[in-house]
């Protein structure tokens, strides 16, 4: 039973109840050193410690549990990374078969994780057209249900549970910096802030070299990503037609950051939080550092969205 409309407050509460036995209630981390360095009270929601290594398990699990009666032939998707891992694990948890289409250049660490969860991987050329064509063939052949990575209200409701937890744990959060790829996480975060902590503003964080959301916000119309090229590989995707309107209506601002700023923020998180994160997870801190003058002594949440990084290919 797919959700047909923007998830309501009650649907996000239901999603949180539905998935709670299959996901971690991740910790919120702080660093006095980082707070002192930048003059901001920071609260890091450590989704890098989530099952499957990213927040994506929330949406994937919610989508599967909402539609379980229709999934006798399993689930399928195309993904180069975290959604692939999340769907493979969520399917395994429910005793379902997962078919994952991955580009030939997908990070080795993510391919190994998907294999480890027992999913069937089909490799394709690293283009969106190849991914979609290969997936369509697999769905036609197997009858598996396509679980979208982000452009689905089932997924958005699941991702919203991250922000629900954060604002319920940290009272009176002034703002939250959320990374933007396809927009599932920030869409859910906007909804949860609106429903559970209306005084918390949501600010998007995006690489300069994959800035479709920033461009769209400034133009007032949808501008898709063109040849994104960033170390934050989880944020290369363009917004979807379901995530786009939620973001444009609810985001307070979108801050873009350079590749060097992402690397610098990544080093700070490794050094002071002692957390292994992927580059995408450093983008919110990079954006906050850039805007720190506007957040002095404010309470700011940041999501460490994932920790699936190839340690042989660290960008520093």
UniProtKB/TrEMBL annotation:
Keywords: Lyase, Magnesium, Pyridoxal phosphate. PROSITE patterns: DEHYDRATASE_SER_THR. Its cofactor is Mn(2+); Mg(2+); Ca(2+); pyridoxal 5'-phosphate. GO terms for molecular function: ATP binding; L-serine ammonia-lyase activity; magnesium ion binding; pyridoxal phosphate binding; serine racemase activity; threonine racemase activity. Gene3D superfamilies: 3.40.50.1100. Residues 21-306 form the Tryptophan synthase beta chain-like PALP domain. Signal peptide: none annotated. It holds the Pfam family PALP. The keyword Lyase applies. GO terms for biological process: D-serine biosynthetic process. PANTHER family: SERINE / THREONINE RACEMASE FAMILY MEMBER, SERINE RACEMASE. Belongs to the serine/threonine dehydratase family. This is Pyridoxal-phosphate dependent enzyme. It comes from Marivirga atlantica. The lineage of its organism: Bacteria, Pseudomonadati, Bacteroidota, Cytophagia, Cytophagales.
